[in-house]
Design goal:
Strand order of the largest sheet: 5-4-1-8-9-10-11-12-13
Number of strands: 13
Oligomer: single chain
Radius of gyration: 18 Å
Shape: globular
Helix content: 25-40%
CATH topology: UDP-N-acetylmuramoyl-L-alanine:D-glutamate ligase
CATH architecture: 3-Layer(aba) Sandwich
CATH superfamily: Ribokinase
Structural class: alpha/beta
Number of domains: 1
Strand content: 15-25%
Length: about 325
C-alpha cells in the first residue's frame, strides 16, 4: 500500500547550458514532469509512492524508469508504448532562473495513456491520489485521468490536485479553464500558483483560495507566490509564509511540484484531515515546503534537485524561529 499515487507526465526536460559558436543551444537532458517531481519529494521525505503514466518504448522512456526506480517510486503503473515518443520539454532560463517551456508533444506518450492501462491495483490502500491538468489537456489521457480519479474515490483516497498550467499545451484558454476547474471540483487539497489564479479568475491569491474552498469544495489550499512565499488556507486558519533568505536561484524548474510533494509529506505525518489542521500545523507544513522548494532551485532540474531532509530542517530552523507564528 502506498502513501501517495500520482498519475500524469514523466518526461525529459532539455535545459540550455551553453551555446556553440553559431549560437545554437547546447542542451542537458534532465528527468522531469510535475507528478514525477511531486512523488520524488514525497519519496525523499519519507513517504511511499507509485506512478501511473506512459512513456515511449525508447531510450528516454527506459532512462526515466531507471530514474524513478532508483528513487524508490513504484513503476508498475508505468506503460511503455512503441507507437509514440517519450514527451520532451525544452526549457529556457532567464537571468533570475525563471523558465519558459516548449514541448515536443504532438502527441507525446503521456497523452496516450488509455483508461484500460491505468494500474488500479496501485490505488488499493493508497492514502492520496494526485493529478494535474496536463493529463486533462487531450484524449485519451483525459478519460484515463477521469477513470483513475473515480477509482481513487471508490478506494477512499484523499484527492490532491495541482493545475500546473502550461499555456502552449492547450488548444485555447476556454478549454484550459474548463478542464482546470473540473479538476478543482474533484480535489480535497489544492496547490495552485498566484499566476494560475490570475489566469482563471483575475482575482487576488486570497480571493482565489477562498473561492476554491467555498465554491469548489476543497478542504485545504496552498497558493504559491513565487519568490514571495506561500498563502495557505483551510476552513479555520489562513496565513502567509515568506521565502527563506539567502537562496541563490539557479533554476526554478520543478520548484512548485517539490513544494507540493514536500507539503504533502508533512501533512501525512500529522495524521489529520486537511480541515482539522490549525494555524501552527499549517505554518509548519508550509515552512518545510518553502524551504525544500527554495533549496531545490539552487540546482538544475526538478526531479533530481532535492536536498536531504536534514538540510531542509536546518533551513527551517534558521529562517523561522519556532517561538513565532
Amino acid at each position: 500500500m502506498k502513501d501517495v499515487v500520482a498519475l500524469g507526465e514523466v518526461l525529459i526536460d532539455f535545459a540550455c547550458c551553453s551555446a556553440d559558436v553559431s549560437g545554437y543551444p547546447i542542451l542537458a537532458a534532465q528527468p522531469g514532469g510535475a507528478p514525477a517531481n511531486f512523488l520524488s519529494a514525497l519519496q525523499c521525505y519519507g513517504c511511499s509512492t507509485g506512478f501511473i503514466g506512459k512513456v515511449g518504448d525508447d531510450a528516454f522512456g527506459h532512462l526515466l524508469k531507471i530514474t524513478l526506480d532508483s528513487q524508490g517510486i513504484d513503476t508498475q503503473g508505468l506503460v511503455f508504448d512503441p507507437s509514440v515518443f517519450t514527451t520532451l520539454a525544452f526549457v529556457t532560463l532567464d537571468a533570475t532562473g525563471n523558465r519558459e517551456f516548449s514541448f515536443a508533444r504532438k502527441p507525446g506518450a503521456d497523452t496516450n495513456l488509455h483508461s484500460s492501462e491505468v494500474a488500479i491495483s496501485l490505488l488499493e490502500g493508497a492514502r492520496v491520489f494526485h493529478f494535474g491538468s496536463l493529463s486533462l489537456s487531450d484524449e485519451p489521457s483525459r478519460s484515463a485521468t477521469q477513470f483513475a480519479l473515480s477509482q481513487a474515490k471508490a478506494h477512499r483516497c484523499l484527492i490532491s490536485y495541482d493545475p500546473n498550467f502550461r499555456k502552449p499545451l492547450w488548444k485555447n484558454d476556454q478549454i484550459a479553464r474548463k478542464q482546470i476547474e473540473w479538476g478543482l471540483h474533484q480535489a480535497d487539497i489544492v496547490k495552485i500558483s498566484d499566476e494560475e489564479i490570475g489566469f482563471l479568475w483575475d482575482i487576488s491569491p486570497e480571493q482565489g483560495a477562498k473561492k476554491i474552498l467555498n465554491e469548489f469544495g476543497a478542504s485545504l489550499v496552498y497558493v504559491t507566490l513565487g519568490p514571495n512565499g506561500c498563502y495557505f488556507s483551510n476552513s479555520s486558519a489562513d496565513g502567509y509564509v515568506a521565502t527563506p533568505c539567502n537562496i541563490h536561484v539557479v533554476d526554478t524548474t520543478g520548484a512548485g511540484d517539490i513544494f507540493g510533494g514536500s507539503a504533502m509529506s508533512r501533512f501525512l505525518k500529522t495524521g489529520k484531515t486537511p480541515s482539522e489542521l490549525d494555524a501552527m500545523e499549517l505554518r509548519d507544513i508550509v515552512r518545510f515546503a518553502c524551504c525544500a522548494a527554495s533549496l531545490s532551485t539552487q540546482n538544475h532540474g526538478g526531479l533530481t534537485s532535492l536536498l536531504p531532509e536534514k538540510q531542509v530542517v536546518e533551513c527551517v530552523e534558521s529562517n523561522y524561529p519556532y517561538n513565532t507564528l
